[in-house]
Each structure stands twice: as structure tokens, then as C-alpha cells.
Amino acid sequence: MSANQSENFSAGKRTAVFYITAGMGHAVPASAIAEGFTALGCHAEALNFFHVVKAGMWQWFCRTSWRFFLRLPKLERRYTAGVEKRKREERFLDFIGGFYRRRFLRWHTGFSPDIIVATNFIAARVISRIIAVTGIETPFFYYNSDVFSVLSIHACSRYRWFLTPVKSSAAMIIDKGQPAETVSVCPFPIRPIFSGSRLTKQEARERLGLQDRFTVMLNLGGEGIGSISLIRGIAALELPVQVVLVGGRTTSLDLTCDALKREYPSLVLFSPGFVSEMDVYLYACDIAAGKAGANTVAEAIYARRPFMITTDYFNVETTAALLESHGIGWFAPETEQQTAVIRFCLNDPSVLNRAEKGFDELDMEFGAEAFARRVISLISESS
What we know:
The protein is 51% helix and 14% strand. It has helices spanning 3-10, 27-39, 49-52, 56-71, 73-85, 88-99, 101-111, 121-134, 167-175, 201-208, 229-236, 251-263, 278-284, 294-302, 316-325, 335-347, 350-361, 368-382; strands at 14-19, 43-48, 115-118, 140-143, 161-164, 183-185, 215-219, 242-246, 268-273, 287-290, 307-309, 329-331.
């Protein structure tokens, strides 16, 4: 479908994009997708599913458990491995779909959506159950916000369309039982802040007031939860590296950073906290690092910056395998491994140059508006 056809088809369409507030990983793509539809002339809104169905208790539970597991990666791996082996959680989500049916239908009548997208499996399974039982004909899409990986609970035969940004995760979800005819590779709905001009490292560093030297950006995510042992490792070895620490800030984190600066006077550390110009910070760095949040990794790929995964959560190996197979990243959960990667890059600058070929070879499309066009094209082809 051409750009003009997409705009004509979508003009005035009402689109609802549902997310849940367990971290920023589902809300960020939901907001980007909504903006992509808006650019095509739709009335689009990103909606917190738990707010819509007035499920405050479940919102609290999901957010609290998410933060709990972020702090305890080993326990997260054990729990998620258990979910992979059983169907209890799937049956439970089907059950609560019946419990919240009336509230969702009341919203549906008032909003009157022409398209529904969900970026989290909880919202997706509940909504798809309600649609199946009530016969609602609104086109429904599930977007895999994990991007590079999938879990068995993500697969659901009720989904009319399962959208994921890379071919490898599309193959994975089919292997886990998702009907192949429902699976489609889609553009990654990157945030609008990345729509501006690309900057050189020197331009970005000057804009941010950083030194023009080898730079590692360590991202703790929106929750500001994660290990900063990498910073201590860099400082202890006196590596000629500038570290930029981004993400949510806490008092204890600020105190730890201040203590590191006092202990290691040669450490060059900037900690701006949660930043709105993530594109500029990515352009300023040589290597991005942190836990393998899908949006964080995908944005680093868009900026053509290698990514070092520093935390071993469940299913992270699939993301690591993709990065390493293309020479655009590393899996380094131990501090010694992380500093070894940085030393390797410092001693052999051609490593980063070779990564350029890997970015070229990675078959991944970007754009929130392109995502919206893909959705509209799928609806048009099926009608």
C-alpha cells in the first residue's frame, strides 16, 4: 500500500494502543505507535490497560513484581523458566478476561476503536479473549515489545496478527505454537526523537558538554535499577574511558557515584539521570551497555552503536546471539568480561569499524509511521 493510500485509508480512524506499567518497555513503544498512527491522520491514543478496566491492584502487583525481579536476576531466571513450562498463567489470564469484560466493553462503546494494538501479553491475552467471546470485529494486533526474544506465554491462537520486528523472533514464536499465518515482521516503532539528523560522536559530545574521548554509555533503564560494577571496574583499571550513566536516579545511586569519584579521582563519570535526548547520548558514545531492554538495544542498533549486555536475565541469550552473530555486541555479565571488552575495543579501534558491516547486514526496519502503515496494509489485504 502506497503512502497516499495508507493516509486515505487511515484518515479519521480511531486507534487504541494498550500497554501496562511494568517498567517502560511496553509504554514507550505504545506511545511511539500512537504517534505513528497520528502522523497518518488517525485519532490514536496510548492507553494504560489497567486504568481502562480499573484494575489498580493488578497494576500495583505487576509493577512491584517487575521491580523485584529486576533487582534479583537469578530469581527472575528461575521464575520465568517455570512460566515457560506451565500453562497456569495462561489459564489465569483467560479467567480474568471474563472478570473485566464489562468494563472493557464499556470503554469500547465509548471510544469506538477501528484498530486495537497491545504491546504487552497480559493486555493482549485478556483483550483477545473478550473479542473472541463477544464477537467484536475490531482488528486486533499484538506487538512483541521484547523484539528479539519471545516466551511461550506470548503465543496465542486468538491473535489475528502477531507483529515482531526481527525474523529470528518471528521464527521463535512460530516454534512456540503461534500460527504462522498470523505472524508478520514489522518495523520497529522507534521514538520520534530519533527522527532528527544523525550526529557525529564529536558533534554529540560537544552538544552535551562531554569530553571528546572513548565513551561508554551505561543505561540503567527507566527504573534506575541495575549494577554499576562496570564503572568501578573501569576506575580500578584506570582505563582511558569516559562513562555516561543514564536512567532513573535514586539517592543511593547518587551517593555511590559520588563515592566512586572520591575513591578514583581519575574517573571521568557523568550521571545526567533520565534523559530526554537519548538519541544524542547514543550518538555521543562508542559503546552502549546495560541490561538488555529491547527498546534500549533496538535504539542502539538504530544509532549504529554496539551494545554490551551486562545483566543475565532469562531469555537474554537470544538477544546476545543476534548481536554477537552480526558483530554488533557482546554478552558480558561479569565485570571482568565487561572491562575486557572495553580494553579490546581500546586496543583495536577496527572492532568498531567492523561493526558497521554488521549493522548493514542486520535486516531490521525502523519507524513508528512505517509500523502504522504495515498495520493498515495488513487490514487492507485481509478485507
